[in-house]
Amino acid sequence: MRVAIALGLAVLLGATPAWAGLRPRYGGEAAAALPVQKPALDPAQAATVAELFVVSLVHQPPLERAADGALVPVLLAEPPLSDDGGRTFRLQLREGLRFHDGRPLRAADLAASLRRLDGGPWAALTLPVRSLDVRSDTRLDVTLAFPFPRWPEALAEAAAGVVPASFAGTVPPGAGPFRIAAASGSTLRLDAFDGHAAGRPFLDTLRLHGQPDRRAAARLVAGGSVQLGPARTQEARVATWLLLAPDLAERLEGAVAAAIDRADTVRYFVPGAAAPLDRLLPAPHPAPRAAAGARGRVPGSAPLTLLYDPAVEGHRQVAERIQLRLHDRGLQVRLDTAGAADLRARTRGARYELALVQLPLPQDTGLAAATLLHAAGRADAARRLLAQVGAAGPAADAAARAASQALGRVRGIVPLYATTEAIVPTPSSGLQDAAGDLADAWRAPESPR
Amino acid sequence: MIALPLLLALLAPATPASGGVRAAADAAPEPQAASIVALARAIAADAAALVPPSTTRLALEVESPARRLATSFEAALGVALREAGFAPAVPVGDAAAAEASGADALVRVRVDLLGATLAAAGELRTLRPNFFTGEALAAGGPLAAELPADASARLLAGPGAMGPLAIEVVPFAALAQAPVALAVGTLGGTPYVAALLEDELVLLGADGSRRARHPLPPPAPGALPSRDPRAGLVVVSDSIRYAFPSRGVAGAVRLEGDALVHVTDAPPDVLPLVSGPAGVLSAMQAPQSNLFAPTLLLADAASGAAPRAAATPAPFVTALSAPSGGALPFGLVTGSGVFISVQADLTFGTAPVEGLGDAAALADLDGDGVAELLASGRTAAAPDAIRAIRLGAGGGSPIESAPIDAVLVIAASGDLGGGDEAIFAATDGRLLRVRRAP
């Protein structure tokens, strides 16, 4: 029974906006426009901005990065422990973890997920790993080939999302904040995963609308039917380089580097948000060296083959631009295409002359530099670099300096541009706290009027 | 007829307790007892202990922010002084008028309603020396008494008499992180603020200083974490009870010396939300959310009887309790920001008050017996502000604090020694004290 008590005054506070004081609200939906139709859903293969976005929703790496860069255990019960200065790490999983399909998430799954990185675009993350020792359902011991105290940074990358050791089909079940509830054409419906290790996300559902290109995605955003879409950001998670085969690097690097006009290439040939990359890595790292005679012609050279992946947006145009610019300097270049896996295998095996590659960048500088060297077919150099970075200790600044010095001695890598794009909330999305982890985003309720 | 507890109080030696204020009645007065009369008798007894009633002519000066309360108390005190053996006192306006009246001594008292307490304090001052010896008739001394205010006292000191309500927001303490639950209450008669953090329980004194801490047990295996953890926390029956569902732990601790000592475990899914004179309100969390399910439990903390349950009109985000009880003992704020009043018999009333933020508390700042509603605003970004809304008869415009550069999402109220007030917690760990402005 309700009893109305005498209350003196009707007070309507809702009419005054811009006052704080709400907890996040559970429920509601949001939709995102992706600039690709069907992004890969395998964390080990995610290499584009859209793929990294989707993978970070569906899959869960053992660690996450806080806003201040600190590593936060999510699947792990505690930060990775090392008793020997970063040579071995003990990874202790939380009890009771499960994948979206209900099966338990065990240390063997974590080990298998790390092994799956080998051969993919993120292979450098496990380059220092010598052995993975599953000690129990919840404990994995990792031994590195050399001390590398910052190796746990690899466990915070989306690519380290844990998938079952075995699964049917091509889409591995995840343990991320959202589970794939339905896939229809190029639309994915993701529902909140109640059993997520950091707690159920606030939104009930995310709908991801894959689009044929970024113009179609932009139209969706402009129409107001989605709350998230591609937009320019300050951070670069993906970048493109021109690789020269090691045996050509000494002779041609200077001329090739001098032939490339990064600003014009970005302005006229690269779709989406990008910035010329005049350093080997987006952070302040060594500039590419200018070899003697760099401005001169390169007479008498036999035609070279420039490999590129036509599936990477803009790479065909950029390859043609490079072909033209090198032709102007007397260097004959023939274009050839290769799929992502084939291109990766050929560059890593040093079976190329020139290659246009787009690589995802780990946030740790040492691992990013190793990713670049490994992709260029210099795995040994990548290991040496990681060993030098590891010897610099756990401090991020010292590690970055060591990586920068090591990278400065490498020939045959010409930086082109960094993709400065992310799938982010639109200004009118109404989503709160959506700047970082989308699992923390929530919709503010309408105030009664 | 005078009730026994009151009679015992009147017969008690008229020596002020420590701090110069003594309780006029050790036990709660009977509902029909006039607290003004009882207070006047206590002051009269004090005066009689200071000077001989039979030979001292008194002048009487009573002041109060509430004019009607001053008039009534002056009349009651005049009667009480005569009952104590004094000659009829002469009401005067000030000391000069008292001297001119020919009285031997001046009884000068200020009476006020402080929260739910009716208090009188002042002095007995001799006005003239002995004609023959030149010595003061008596040394004089302080006069002070207090007791719970009854309805008639609150009526006389009602909003109209108390003047406009104004609040002040002052820093209270800074915690390392935002608390997940907050409570105000007394342990061993001393007021404290308890704050439950992610992994510890912190006890703060009335001045905001840290007095004790108690680490929480490790999370229970299988406990489902939350991105916005909610917990229950009350200070009741000299212990602190807590429940932290997303951590899977719950229990009670007691203050022993400077340490909080574990007393017992409890089921973690029933959250004690607020406590007040009418009991402890508890609820369970709605699954996979930070709202509370629409079933409310009210338990009498002292009796240990089984709690009574009632269905609330809607799921809610905040439960509130008036520290002094009164006509509005409990309240709820729904997820959509609407206030629901809750009576001690677990009946609900919807009030035309909406647009409330999630941090809300009830506190009788103006002492009229009906708690004011203090609440944060309603969007997710700083700055915030706290509004005080009079819910009692007479109402009035809501009072709003100056902008606060914080997001306030949790609050609790209690008596920290000066009547009802509230503590608001910001997401950055700051605690702010909200009280009636002087």
For the largest beta-sheet of chain B, the strand count, sense and barrel status come to: 5 strands, mixed
Secondary structure: number of strands of chain B:
30
Helix content of chain A: 10-25%
- Low-confidence residue ranges of chain A: 1-19, 292-297
Can you tell me the overall shape of chain B? elongated
Specify the structural class of chain B: mainly beta
> Which protein chains make the most extensive interface, counting residues with beta carbons within 8 Å of the other chain's beta carbons?
A-B, 46 and 62 residues
Oligomeric composition of the shown chains: heterodimer
Distance between the termini of chain B: 38 Å
**Beta-strand residue fraction of chain B:** 35-45%
Please outline the helices and strands:
The complex is a heterodimer of chains A (449) and B (438).
Chain A: E1 11-12, E2 29-34, H1 49-58, E3 63-65, E4 71-73, E5 88-92, H2 107-116, E6 129-134, E7 139-144, E8 178-184, E9 187-192, E10 205-210, H3 214-223, E11 228-232, E12 238-244, H4 246-259, H5 262-269, E13 274-276, E14 304-308, H6 315-328, E15 333-337, H7 340-348, E16 354-360, H8 365-375, H9 379-391, H10 396-408, E17 413-419, E18 421-425, E19 431-432, E20 442-443
Parallel strand pairs in A: 2-10, 14-15, 14-16
Antiparallel strand pairs in A: 3-4, 5-7, 6-7, 8-9, 9-10, 11-18, 12-16, 12-17, 13-17, 19-20
Helix pairs in contact in A: 8-9, 8-10, 9-10
Chain B: H1 4-11, H2 35-50, E1 58-63, H3 67-83, E2 90-91, H4 95-100, E3 105-114, E4 117-126, E5 141-148, H5 151-156, H6 159-162, E6 167-174, E7 181-187, E8 190-196, E9 200-205, E10 210-215, E11 232-236, E12 239-244, E13 249-256, E14 259-265, E15 270-276, E16 279-284, E17 295-299, E18 308-311, E19 316-321, E20 330-334, E21 339-342, E22 348-350, E23 353-354, E24 360-363, E25 372-375, E26 387-390, E27 399-400, E28 408-415, E29 420-426, E30 430-436
Parallel strand pairs in B: 1-2, 1-3
Antiparallel strand pairs in B: 3-4, 4-5, 6-30, 7-8, 8-9, 9-10, 11-12, 12-13, 13-14, 15-16, 16-17, 17-18, 19-20, 20-21, 21-22, 24-25, 25-26, 26-27, 28-29, 29-30
Helix pairs in contact in B: 2-3
